[in-house]
Amino acid sequence: MGLVWRSGRPLSVREAVGALNAGRARPLAYTTVMTVMSRLSEKGALSRERAGRSYLYRAVAPDAAGLAVRSVLRTYGDAAVAHFVNEAQADPKVLEKLRRLLADADG
Predict the structure, then answer these.
(1) Is 77 left (phi over 0), alpha (psi -120 to 50) or beta?
(2) What is the mean pLDDT of each run of 10 residues along the chain (107 residues)?
(3) ∠ at Cα 21 (23, 49), nearest 5°?
(4) Could you give the CA distance from residue 98 to residue 85 in angstroms, rounded to a whole number?
(5) Given 43, 75, 96, 98, which residue has the most CB atoms within 10 angstroms?
(6) For residue 37, what is the DSSP state?
(7) Do 58 and 68 meet the contact criterion of CB atoms below 8 Å apart?
């Protein structure tokens, strides 16, 4: 995931293998990297789009925290949001930060 996040653009398996193997004493197999990227796509951490005969993979969130939030919201939905708001209300600094983020999102 770190490689995909650092790239800032969609990557093919071949590009990922090249970057991951740069400087490695024991290179990773193409099929190993392909399997991992495919599984990350199945789990919703990467999206993939066809590019000729292969795929390009892109992170669905900007970082690990973003992935965690997506997962919690997908699993628990409105209940997760309600608990988050309740937790934020217990800490005035967090509540103020949440208010600023919501105001910025509104534009």
Answers:
(1) left
(2) 95 97 95 97 96 96 94 93 90 91 86
(3) 145
(4) 9
(5) 98
(6) H
(7) no
